[in-house]
Amino acid sequence: MALRGDWVYENNGGTCVAIAGSDYCVVAADTRLSVGYSIHTRDYSKICNLCDLLFPADKCVLASSGFQGDMKALQKNLAAKHLVSVHLLHIYQHQHNKQMSCPAMARLLSNTLYYKRFFPYYTFNILGGLDNEGKGCVYTYDAVGSYERVGYSCQGTGGALIMPVLDNQLKSPSPLLLPARDAVTPLSESEAVDLVKDVFASATERDIYTVRFPIFFFFQFLAFCESDIFPTQQHAYSSRVLNDPNEYDPLIGFRLSYRIMHK
Amino acid sequence: MAGSYGSTLRYKNVERIKSIGKHTLLGASGEVSDFQEILRYLDELIIYDDMWDDGNSLGPKEVHNYLTRVMYNRRNKFDPLFNSLVVGGVKNGQKYLGMVGMIGTHYEDNHVATGFGNHLARPLMRAEWHEDMSFEEAVKLLEKCLLVLLYRDRSAINKFQIAKITEVGVTISEPYALKTFWGFLAFQNPTKGAEGSW
Protein backbone atom coordinates (compact mmCIF):
# COMPACT_ATOMS: atom_id res chain seq x y z
CA MET A 1 0.00 0.00 0.00
CA ALA A 2 2.94 2.30 0.60
CA LEU A 3 3.67 1.94 -3.08
CA ARG A 4 0.28 3.30 -4.00
CA GLY A 5 0.56 6.10 -6.49
CA ASP A 6 -1.43 9.28 -6.28
CA TRP A 7 -2.97 8.56 -9.67
CA VAL A 8 -5.58 6.26 -8.18
CA TYR A 9 -7.48 9.24 -6.81
CA GLU A 10 -8.86 12.38 -8.34
CA ASN A 11 -10.73 15.18 -6.64
CA ASN A 12 -13.79 15.97 -8.68
CA GLY A 13 -14.94 18.62 -6.21
CA GLY A 14 -18.45 19.44 -5.16
CA THR A 15 -20.26 20.58 -2.06
CA CYS A 16 -23.04 18.98 -0.02
CA VAL A 17 -25.14 20.61 2.69
CA ALA A 18 -27.85 19.18 4.92
CA ILE A 19 -30.00 20.71 7.64
CA ALA A 20 -32.31 18.84 9.99
CA GLY A 21 -35.38 20.39 11.58
CA SER A 22 -37.82 19.02 14.10
CA ASP A 23 -39.98 17.47 11.38
CA TYR A 24 -38.04 17.93 8.16
CA CYS A 25 -34.65 17.54 6.54
CA VAL A 26 -33.10 19.42 3.63
CA VAL A 27 -30.26 17.85 1.66
CA ALA A 28 -28.58 19.77 -1.15
CA ALA A 29 -25.59 19.23 -3.41
CA ASP A 30 -24.18 21.15 -6.34
CA THR A 31 -23.92 19.54 -9.77
CA ARG A 32 -20.48 20.44 -11.08
CA LEU A 33 -17.94 17.72 -11.85
CA SER A 34 -14.42 19.07 -12.29
CA VAL A 35 -10.82 18.05 -12.23
CA GLY A 36 -8.12 20.67 -11.68
CA TYR A 37 -9.07 23.76 -13.65
CA SER A 38 -11.25 21.80 -16.11
CA ILE A 39 -14.95 21.22 -15.80
CA HIS A 40 -16.14 17.80 -16.91
CA THR A 41 -19.84 18.57 -16.78
CA ARG A 42 -22.16 21.04 -15.08
CA ASP A 43 -25.01 18.61 -14.70
CA TYR A 44 -23.96 15.73 -12.51
CA SER A 45 -26.15 14.84 -9.56
CA LYS A 46 -24.18 13.98 -6.44
CA ILE A 47 -27.29 12.99 -4.56
CA CYS A 48 -28.23 9.33 -4.51
CA ASN A 49 -31.67 8.30 -3.50
CA LEU A 50 -31.00 5.10 -1.61
CA CYS A 51 -34.42 3.79 -2.37
CA ASP A 52 -35.26 1.49 -5.17
CA LEU A 53 -38.53 0.80 -6.92
CA LEU A 54 -39.61 -1.59 -4.20
CA PHE A 55 -39.31 1.05 -1.52
CA PRO A 56 -40.21 4.40 -3.02
CA ALA A 57 -40.62 6.08 0.35
CA ASP A 58 -37.16 5.50 1.66
CA LYS A 59 -36.30 7.82 4.48
CA CYS A 60 -32.83 8.95 3.50
CA VAL A 61 -30.69 10.27 0.68
CA LEU A 62 -26.93 10.23 0.36
CA ALA A 63 -25.03 13.26 -0.87
CA SER A 64 -21.36 12.68 -1.68
CA SER A 65 -18.42 14.63 -3.04
CA GLY A 66 -14.82 13.65 -3.70
CA PHE A 67 -13.69 11.17 -6.36
CA GLN A 68 -16.56 10.44 -8.72
CA GLY A 69 -15.45 6.86 -9.45
CA ASP A 70 -15.53 6.04 -5.76
CA MET A 71 -18.80 7.93 -5.29
CA LYS A 72 -20.47 5.75 -7.88
CA ALA A 73 -18.86 2.58 -6.53
CA LEU A 74 -20.05 3.45 -3.02
CA GLN A 75 -23.57 4.12 -4.25
CA LYS A 76 -23.64 0.86 -6.19
CA ASN A 77 -22.23 -0.99 -3.20
CA LEU A 78 -24.91 0.44 -0.91
CA ALA A 79 -27.61 -0.23 -3.48
CA ALA A 80 -26.47 -3.84 -3.74
CA LYS A 81 -26.39 -4.16 0.04
CA HIS A 82 -29.76 -2.52 0.10
CA LEU A 83 -31.05 -5.14 -2.33
CA VAL A 84 -29.73 -7.78 0.01
CA SER A 85 -31.13 -5.75 2.85
CA VAL A 86 -34.47 -5.81 1.07
CA HIS A 87 -34.61 -9.47 1.95
CA LEU A 88 -33.33 -8.71 5.42
CA LEU A 89 -35.83 -5.90 5.58
CA HIS A 90 -38.60 -8.30 4.86
CA ILE A 91 -37.42 -10.45 7.72
CA TYR A 92 -36.86 -7.36 9.80
CA GLN A 93 -40.31 -6.11 8.96
CA HIS A 94 -42.02 -9.34 9.74
CA GLN A 95 -40.18 -9.60 13.00
CA HIS A 96 -40.23 -6.00 14.15
CA ASN A 97 -43.12 -4.51 12.21
CA LYS A 98 -41.16 -1.57 10.82
CA GLN A 99 -39.00 -0.53 7.90
CA MET A 100 -35.24 -0.03 8.01
CA SER A 101 -34.53 3.44 9.37
CA CYS A 102 -32.21 6.26 8.47
CA PRO A 103 -30.02 5.60 11.57
CA ALA A 104 -29.64 1.99 10.39
CA MET A 105 -28.62 3.12 6.93
CA ALA A 106 -26.18 5.51 8.61
CA ARG A 107 -24.45 2.61 10.36
CA LEU A 108 -24.43 0.59 7.14
CA LEU A 109 -22.70 3.48 5.36
CA SER A 110 -20.14 3.79 8.15
CA ASN A 111 -19.33 0.08 8.01
CA THR A 112 -19.14 0.18 4.21
CA LEU A 113 -16.62 3.02 4.35
CA TYR A 114 -14.58 1.45 7.14
CA TYR A 115 -14.45 -1.87 5.30
CA LYS A 116 -12.18 -0.10 2.86
CA ARG A 117 -10.13 1.56 5.60
CA PHE A 118 -6.79 0.77 3.94
CA PHE A 119 -7.83 1.62 0.38
CA PRO A 120 -10.51 4.15 1.17
CA TYR A 121 -13.34 5.46 -0.91
CA TYR A 122 -12.23 9.04 -1.42
CA THR A 123 -15.71 10.34 -0.73
CA PHE A 124 -17.12 12.83 1.73
CA ASN A 125 -20.66 12.01 2.58
CA ILE A 126 -23.74 13.36 4.24
CA LEU A 127 -26.76 11.19 4.86
CA GLY A 128 -30.01 13.03 5.49
CA GLY A 129 -33.52 11.91 6.24
CA LEU A 130 -36.01 11.27 8.98
CA ASP A 131 -35.41 9.13 12.04
CA ASN A 132 -37.77 6.70 13.76
CA GLU A 133 -39.55 9.51 15.59
CA GLY A 134 -40.07 11.45 12.37
CA LYS A 135 -37.43 14.00 13.35
CA GLY A 136 -35.00 15.29 10.78
CA CYS A 137 -31.58 13.72 11.01
CA VAL A 138 -28.22 14.41 9.40
CA TYR A 139 -25.23 12.09 9.56
CA THR A 140 -21.85 13.40 8.58
CA TYR A 141 -18.85 11.22 7.66
CA ASP A 142 -15.20 11.24 6.86
CA ALA A 143 -13.73 9.08 4.10
CA VAL A 144 -12.99 6.11 6.37
CA GLY A 145 -16.31 5.87 8.13
CA SER A 146 -16.13 7.97 11.29
CA TYR A 147 -19.59 9.42 11.66
CA GLU A 148 -21.76 11.47 13.93
CA ARG A 149 -25.37 12.50 14.06
CA VAL A 150 -25.64 16.27 13.91
CA GLY A 151 -28.26 18.95 13.35
CA TYR A 152 -26.63 20.29 10.21
CA SER A 153 -23.49 19.66 8.21
CA CYS A 154 -21.61 20.32 5.02
CA GLN A 155 -18.93 18.42 3.13
CA GLY A 156 -16.75 18.82 0.10
CA THR A 157 -14.64 21.54 -1.46
CA GLY A 158 -16.96 24.34 -0.31
CA GLY A 159 -17.45 22.79 3.12
CA ALA A 160 -14.85 24.90 4.92
CA LEU A 161 -16.45 28.06 3.52
CA ILE A 162 -19.98 27.08 4.49
CA MET A 163 -19.54 25.45 7.90
CA PRO A 164 -18.86 28.65 9.90
CA VAL A 165 -21.87 30.32 8.30
CA LEU A 166 -24.08 27.41 9.32
CA ASP A 167 -22.55 27.52 12.84
CA ASN A 168 -23.31 31.21 13.04
CA GLN A 169 -26.84 31.00 11.68
CA LEU A 170 -28.01 27.81 13.30
CA LYS A 171 -26.37 28.17 16.73
CA SER A 172 -26.53 24.54 17.60
CA PRO A 173 -26.29 23.82 21.35
CA SER A 174 -22.87 22.58 22.40
CA PRO A 175 -22.60 18.79 22.37
CA LEU A 176 -20.85 19.15 25.76
CA LEU A 177 -24.02 20.36 27.46
CA LEU A 178 -25.61 18.01 29.97
CA PRO A 179 -28.29 16.90 29.75
CA ALA A 180 -27.89 16.62 25.99
CA ARG A 181 -29.97 19.01 23.94
CA ASP A 182 -31.56 18.50 20.60
CA ALA A 183 -29.28 19.51 17.76
CA VAL A 184 -32.04 20.17 15.26
CA THR A 185 -32.38 23.69 13.99
CA PRO A 186 -35.22 25.91 15.19
CA LEU A 187 -35.64 27.29 11.65
CA SER A 188 -38.76 26.66 9.65
CA GLU A 189 -38.24 24.56 6.54
CA SER A 190 -38.52 27.52 4.17
CA GLU A 191 -35.95 29.45 6.22
CA ALA A 192 -33.65 26.44 6.10
CA VAL A 193 -34.04 26.16 2.33
CA ASP A 194 -33.32 29.87 1.97
CA LEU A 195 -30.21 29.49 4.10
CA VAL A 196 -28.98 26.61 1.94
CA LYS A 197 -29.54 28.65 -1.21
CA ASP A 198 -27.61 31.55 0.32
CA VAL A 199 -24.63 29.48 1.45
CA PHE A 200 -24.39 27.91 -2.01
CA ALA A 201 -24.54 31.33 -3.64
CA SER A 202 -21.67 32.47 -1.42
CA ALA A 203 -19.58 29.30 -1.76
CA THR A 204 -19.87 29.60 -5.54
CA GLU A 205 -18.23 33.01 -5.37
CA ARG A 206 -15.07 31.65 -3.73
CA ASP A 207 -14.86 27.96 -4.62
CA ILE A 208 -14.20 27.09 -8.26
CA TYR A 209 -15.47 23.55 -7.72
CA THR A 210 -18.95 24.58 -6.66
CA VAL A 211 -21.67 25.61 -9.05
CA ARG A 212 -24.56 27.81 -8.12
CA PHE A 213 -27.61 25.70 -8.79
CA PRO A 214 -27.81 22.93 -6.25
CA ILE A 215 -30.17 19.99 -6.36
CA PHE A 216 -32.34 19.80 -3.29
CA PHE A 217 -33.95 16.92 -1.55
CA PHE A 218 -36.52 17.71 1.01
CA PHE A 219 -38.08 15.42 3.59
CA GLN A 220 -41.10 16.44 5.55
CA PHE A 221 -42.58 14.35 8.28
CA LEU A 222 -46.35 14.23 8.03
CA ALA A 223 -47.88 11.71 10.34
CA PHE A 224 -47.52 8.23 11.60
CA CYS A 225 -50.05 6.19 9.82
CA GLU A 226 -50.78 2.59 9.36
CA SER A 227 -51.10 0.43 6.35
CA ASP A 228 -51.20 -3.28 5.76
CA ILE A 229 -47.66 -3.45 4.55
CA PHE A 230 -45.94 -1.02 6.87
CA PRO A 231 -48.09 -0.98 10.01
CA THR A 232 -46.09 1.64 11.88
CA GLN A 233 -44.41 3.43 9.06
CA GLN A 234 -44.58 7.19 8.85
CA HIS A 235 -45.07 8.71 5.46
CA ALA A 236 -42.51 11.11 4.09
CA TYR A 237 -42.90 13.89 1.59
CA SER A 238 -39.92 14.50 -0.53
CA SER A 239 -39.31 17.09 -3.20
CA ARG A 240 -36.49 18.65 -5.07
CA VAL A 241 -35.58 21.90 -6.71
CA LEU A 242 -34.93 21.17 -10.34
CA ASN A 243 -31.65 22.29 -11.74
CA ASP A 244 -33.33 24.66 -14.16
CA PRO A 245 -31.95 28.17 -14.67
CA ASN A 246 -35.45 29.33 -15.62
CA GLU A 247 -36.43 28.88 -12.03
CA TYR A 248 -33.71 31.25 -11.03
CA ASP A 249 -34.69 34.88 -10.59
CA PRO A 250 -31.67 37.20 -10.33
CA LEU A 251 -33.50 39.44 -7.86
CA ILE A 252 -35.06 36.90 -5.54
CA GLY A 253 -32.76 33.98 -6.24
CA PHE A 254 -34.18 30.52 -6.53
CA ARG A 255 -37.88 30.13 -6.53
CA LEU A 256 -38.47 26.83 -4.89
CA SER A 257 -40.62 24.63 -6.99
CA TYR A 258 -41.90 21.67 -5.09
CA ARG A 259 -42.41 18.48 -6.94
CA ILE A 260 -44.33 16.72 -4.27
CA MET A 261 -44.22 12.99 -4.30
CA HIS A 262 -46.70 11.44 -1.98
CA LYS A 263 -46.38 7.81 -1.36
CA MET B 1 -4.85 9.46 -36.36
CA ALA B 2 -1.37 9.70 -34.88
CA GLY B 3 0.03 7.27 -32.35
CA SER B 4 3.05 8.72 -30.61
CA TYR B 5 6.02 7.03 -28.98
CA GLY B 6 7.16 9.82 -26.69
CA SER B 7 7.55 12.71 -29.09
CA THR B 8 8.17 10.42 -32.07
CA LEU B 9 5.25 10.05 -34.43
CA ARG B 10 5.50 6.25 -34.41
CA TYR B 11 2.14 5.38 -35.99
CA LYS B 12 0.36 7.57 -38.52
CA ASN B 13 -2.68 5.51 -39.29
CA VAL B 14 -4.26 4.59 -35.96
CA GLU B 15 -8.03 4.23 -36.09
CA ARG B 16 -9.30 5.55 -32.76
CA ILE B 17 -12.97 5.30 -33.62
CA LYS B 18 -14.55 1.87 -33.69
CA SER B 19 -18.13 0.72 -33.81
CA ILE B 20 -19.29 -1.59 -31.04
CA GLY B 21 -22.33 -3.70 -31.78
CA LYS B 22 -25.09 -2.06 -33.79
CA HIS B 23 -25.82 1.06 -31.81
CA THR B 24 -22.53 2.29 -30.42
CA LEU B 25 -19.41 4.18 -31.41
CA LEU B 26 -16.29 4.18 -29.26
CA GLY B 27 -13.50 6.73 -29.47
CA ALA B 28 -10.27 6.50 -27.51
CA SER B 29 -7.19 8.46 -26.66
CA GLY B 30 -4.21 7.19 -24.69
CA GLU B 31 -2.34 3.88 -24.93
CA VAL B 32 -2.98 2.25 -28.29
CA SER B 33 -2.37 -1.29 -27.03
CA ASP B 34 -4.66 -0.80 -24.05
CA PHE B 35 -7.33 0.41 -26.46
CA GLN B 36 -6.86 -2.74 -28.51
CA GLU B 37 -7.28 -4.79 -25.33
CA ILE B 38 -10.51 -2.89 -24.58
CA LEU B 39 -11.71 -3.72 -28.10
CA ARG B 40 -11.03 -7.40 -27.39
CA TYR B 41 -13.10 -7.19 -24.18
CA LEU B 42 -15.92 -5.55 -26.09
CA ASP B 43 -15.78 -8.09 -28.90
CA GLU B 44 -16.22 -10.85 -26.36
CA LEU B 45 -19.01 -8.94 -24.65
CA ILE B 46 -20.93 -8.36 -27.87
CA ILE B 47 -20.43 -11.91 -29.14
CA TYR B 48 -21.57 -13.49 -25.88
CA ASP B 49 -24.57 -11.20 -25.86
CA ASP B 50 -25.39 -12.06 -29.48
CA MET B 51 -25.22 -15.78 -28.78
CA TRP B 52 -28.37 -15.55 -26.68
CA ASP B 53 -30.07 -14.83 -29.98
CA ASP B 54 -33.00 -13.32 -28.09
CA GLY B 55 -33.39 -10.23 -30.24
CA ASN B 56 -31.89 -8.02 -27.54
CA SER B 57 -28.71 -6.10 -28.11
CA LEU B 58 -26.46 -3.88 -26.06
CA GLY B 59 -26.93 -0.17 -26.59
CA PRO B 60 -24.52 2.71 -25.96
CA LYS B 61 -25.67 3.09 -22.37
CA GLU B 62 -24.88 -0.52 -21.59
CA VAL B 63 -21.51 -0.38 -23.35
CA HIS B 64 -20.64 2.82 -21.50
CA ASN B 65 -21.61 1.34 -18.18
CA TYR B 66 -19.58 -1.80 -18.90
CA LEU B 67 -16.54 0.31 -19.74
CA THR B 68 -16.88 2.38 -16.55
CA ARG B 69 -16.75 -0.84 -14.55
CA VAL B 70 -13.79 -2.22 -16.51
CA MET B 71 -11.80 1.00 -16.13
CA TYR B 72 -12.61 1.35 -12.42
CA ASN B 73 -11.87 -2.32 -11.76
CA ARG B 74 -8.46 -2.10 -13.40
CA ARG B 75 -7.55 1.00 -11.39
CA ASN B 76 -8.54 -0.93 -8.24
CA LYS B 77 -5.99 -3.56 -9.27
CA PHE B 78 -3.37 -0.81 -9.71
CA ASP B 79 -3.10 -1.90 -13.34
CA PRO B 80 -5.06 0.77 -15.15
CA LEU B 81 -6.00 0.90 -18.80
CA PHE B 82 -4.31 4.12 -19.87
CA ASN B 83 -7.16 5.56 -21.93
CA SER B 84 -9.85 8.16 -21.99
CA LEU B 85 -12.89 6.81 -23.78
CA VAL B 86 -15.81 8.48 -25.46
CA VAL B 87 -18.95 6.44 -26.06
CA GLY B 88 -21.80 7.61 -28.24
CA GLY B 89 -24.77 6.10 -29.97
CA VAL B 90 -28.45 5.95 -30.70
CA LYS B 91 -30.84 3.21 -29.69
CA ASN B 92 -34.65 3.21 -29.72
CA GLY B 93 -34.66 6.92 -30.57
CA GLN B 94 -32.52 7.70 -27.53
CA LYS B 95 -29.22 9.40 -28.21
CA TYR B 96 -26.41 8.88 -25.78
CA LEU B 97 -23.00 10.41 -25.25
CA GLY B 98 -20.70 9.61 -22.37
CA MET B 99 -17.09 9.51 -21.37
CA VAL B 100 -14.86 7.38 -19.12
CA GLY B 101 -11.45 8.27 -17.76
CA MET B 102 -8.46 6.12 -16.88
CA ILE B 103 -9.44 5.61 -13.24
CA GLY B 104 -13.16 5.24 -13.82
CA THR B 105 -14.43 8.80 -13.67
CA HIS B 106 -17.45 8.94 -15.95
CA TYR B 107 -20.26 11.23 -16.99
CA GLU B 108 -22.71 12.01 -19.75
CA ASP B 109 -23.03 15.33 -21.49
CA ASN B 110 -24.18 16.90 -24.74
CA HIS B 111 -20.58 17.18 -25.86
CA VAL B 112 -17.46 15.47 -24.57
CA ALA B 113 -13.74 15.50 -25.29
CA THR B 114 -10.58 13.84 -24.03
CA GLY B 115 -7.10 15.15 -23.28
CA PHE B 116 -6.29 18.50 -24.85
CA GLY B 117 -9.84 18.56 -26.17
CA ASN B 118 -11.06 19.32 -22.65
CA HIS B 119 -9.05 22.52 -22.65
CA LEU B 120 -9.33 23.61 -26.28
CA ALA B 121 -12.42 22.03 -27.83
CA ARG B 122 -15.01 22.04 -25.06
CA PRO B 123 -15.08 25.81 -24.64
CA LEU B 124 -15.87 26.07 -28.36
CA MET B 125 -18.52 23.39 -28.09
CA ARG B 126 -20.06 25.02 -25.01
CA ALA B 127 -20.38 28.23 -26.99
CA GLU B 128 -21.76 26.74 -30.19
CA TRP B 129 -23.55 23.51 -29.34
CA HIS B 130 -27.32 23.64 -29.47
CA GLU B 131 -30.02 21.00 -29.17
CA ASP B 132 -31.26 20.98 -32.76
CA MET B 133 -27.94 20.95 -34.60
CA SER B 134 -27.95 19.39 -38.05
CA PHE B 135 -25.31 16.81 -38.94
CA GLU B 136 -23.56 19.33 -41.18
CA GLU B 137 -23.44 21.93 -38.42
CA ALA B 138 -22.03 19.34 -36.02
CA VAL B 139 -19.31 18.32 -38.48
CA LYS B 140 -18.45 21.97 -39.04
CA LEU B 141 -18.13 22.52 -35.30
CA LEU B 142 -16.03 19.37 -34.85
CA GLU B 143 -13.71 20.40 -37.69
CA LYS B 144 -13.28 23.80 -36.10
CA CYS B 145 -12.30 22.08 -32.86
CA LEU B 146 -9.95 19.67 -34.63
CA LEU B 147 -8.27 22.54 -36.44
CA VAL B 148 -7.61 24.39 -33.18
CA LEU B 149 -6.25 21.16 -31.71
CA LEU B 150 -4.07 20.62 -34.76
CA TYR B 151 -2.63 24.11 -34.42
CA ARG B 152 -1.92 23.84 -30.70
CA ASP B 153 -1.21 20.15 -29.99
CA ARG B 154 2.18 19.33 -31.39
CA SER B 155 1.50 15.58 -31.33
CA ALA B 156 -1.57 15.90 -33.53
CA ILE B 157 -1.35 15.26 -37.26
CA ASN B 158 -3.57 16.51 -40.04
CA LYS B 159 -5.34 13.24 -40.62
CA PHE B 160 -8.78 12.71 -39.19
CA GLN B 161 -11.81 10.50 -39.28
CA ILE B 162 -15.32 11.55 -38.44
CA ALA B 163 -17.96 8.99 -37.62
CA LYS B 164 -21.71 9.23 -37.72
CA ILE B 165 -24.19 7.04 -35.94
CA THR B 166 -27.94 7.16 -36.34
CA GLU B 167 -30.84 4.79 -35.92
CA VAL B 168 -30.03 3.58 -39.44
CA GLY B 169 -26.44 2.59 -38.85
CA VAL B 170 -22.80 3.53 -38.51
CA THR B 171 -20.50 5.25 -40.98
CA ILE B 172 -16.89 5.99 -40.22
CA SER B 173 -15.31 8.30 -42.77
CA GLU B 174 -12.12 7.62 -44.67
CA PRO B 175 -9.11 9.52 -43.32
CA TYR B 176 -8.99 13.09 -44.60
CA ALA B 177 -7.05 16.29 -44.00
CA LEU B 178 -8.28 19.74 -43.03
CA LYS B 179 -7.29 22.87 -44.86
CA THR B 180 -4.86 24.79 -42.70
CA PHE B 181 -3.70 28.40 -42.71
CA TRP B 182 -0.45 29.12 -40.91
CA GLY B 183 -0.28 32.77 -41.86
CA PHE B 184 -1.95 34.07 -38.69
CA LEU B 185 -0.12 37.03 -37.18
CA ALA B 186 0.24 35.28 -33.85
CA PHE B 187 1.88 32.31 -35.57
CA GLN B 188 4.39 34.44 -37.45
CA ASN B 189 5.20 36.61 -34.46
CA PRO B 190 4.39 34.53 -31.40
CA THR B 191 5.78 37.07 -28.90
CA LYS B 192 3.55 39.85 -30.11
CA GLY B 193 1.43 40.89 -27.20
CA ALA B 194 3.94 39.52 -24.71
CA GLU B 195 6.38 42.39 -24.43
CA GLY B 196 9.77 41.62 -22.92
CA SER B 197 9.54 38.01 -24.02
CA TRP B 198 12.01 36.51 -26.42
UniProtKB/TrEMBL annotation, chain A:
InterPro entries: Ntn_hydrolases_N, Proteasome_sua/b, Proteasome_suB-type. One of its GO terms (biological process) is proteolysis involved in protein catabolic process. Keywords: Cytoplasm, Proteasome. CDD domains: proteasome_beta_type_1. One of its GO terms (cellular component) is cytoplasm. The keyword Cytoplasm applies. It comes from the Eukaryota. It is found in: Nucleus. PANTHER family: METALLOPROTEASE TLDD (PTHR32194), PROTEASOME SUBUNIT BETA TYPE-1 (PTHR32194:SF2). The 26S proteasome consists of a 20S proteasome core and two 19S regulatory subunits. The 20S proteasome core is composed of 28 subunits that are arranged in four stacked rings, resulting in a barrel-shaped structure. The two end rings are each formed by seven alpha subunits, and the two central rings are each formed by seven beta subunits. The catalytic chamber with the active sites is on the inside of the barrel. This is Proteasome subunit beta type-1. It comes from Platanthera zijinensis. The lineage of its organism: Eukaryota, Viridiplantae, Streptophyta, Embryophyta, Tracheophyta.
TrEMBL record, chain B:
The keyword Repeat does not apply. It comes from the Eukaryota. Keywords: Nucleus, Proteasome. InterPro entries: Ntn_hydrolases_N, Proteasome_alpha, Proteasome_beta4, Proteasome_sua/b, Proteasome_suB-type. The keyword Membrane does not apply. PROSITE patterns: PROTEASOME_BETA_2. One of its GO terms (biological process) is proteolysis involved in protein catabolic process. CDD domains: proteasome_beta_type_4. One of its GO terms (cellular component) is proteasome core complex. The 26S proteasome consists of a 20S proteasome core and two 19S regulatory subunits. The 20S proteasome core is composed of 28 subunits that are arranged in four stacked rings, resulting in a barrel-shaped structure. The two end rings are each formed by seven alpha subunits, and the two central rings are each formed by seven beta subunits. The catalytic chamber with the active sites is on the inside of the barrel. This is Proteasome subunit beta type-4. The lineage of its organism: Eukaryota, Viridiplantae, Streptophyta, Embryophyta, Tracheophyta. The gene is PBG1.
